[in-house]
Design goal:
The chain has 161 residues and is mostly helical. Helix content is 28%, strand content 6%. Strands 1-2 form a two-stranded antiparallel ribbon. Helix 1 crosses helix 4 and helix 3 crosses helix 4.
Length: 161
């Protein structure tokens, strides 16, 4: 049996034997491959990280948190990012996903895991859902904009374009 609660109704379940169109998993991809895949992409970094053919499994909360930690603007063009910025994104993406998995994910609305347990990573969010609250690094209010039709949270001072 399969039980699926789609609290915000953005989810999908796809059944497909051919997984070749999915990108690598964020915890499995090495820095060299990450950089090589990013180099030719002229799209905004948030849109790219959410693109499941680029990376499989990054959701909007963890993209916002990763870009905040890496101090990269969500609309920055992927192909123009410096090697240092790409390395920062790669490192923080892995750290944030690892920490979120340990804490059982983020319980926004009524999310629970397969055992019915709430996640606690939402208490660690630095950017996502903190619109108007002071940035933990500089005190500037966190701003919310819409990117690829999704609410996007960032610090306008720490994450300059
Ligand atoms: Zn800031």
């Amino acid at each position: 049996s399969l039980i699926y609660t789609d609290s915000r109704q953005f989810g999908r379940i796809l059944w497909n034997h051919d997984l070749s169109r999915l990108g690598p998993e964020p915890l499995a991809i090495g820095l060299d491959e990450f950089r090589a895949r990013m180099k030719p992409r002229k799209t905004g970094i948030k849109a790219l990280l959410l693109n499941q053919t680029f990376l499989a499994g990054m959701g909007y909360i963890y993209v916002d948190e990763t870009l905040f930690a890496a101090r990269v603007h969500p609309l920055a063009q992927a192909s123009r990012l410096s090697a240092a910025r790409i390395a920062a994104i790669h490192q923080h993406m892995r750290e944030i996903l690892g920490a979120a998995i340990k804490l059982g994910g983020s319980s926004i609305s009524d999310y629970v895991d397969a055992r019915g347990e709430r996640g606690w990573f939402q208490l660690e969010h630095q950017a996502y859902g903190r619109e108007g609250e002071p940035c933990a690094a500089c005190g500037t209010p966190i701003r919310k904009i819409i990117v690829v039709q999704r609410g996007t949270h960032y610090c306008p001072r720490c994450q300059r374009r």
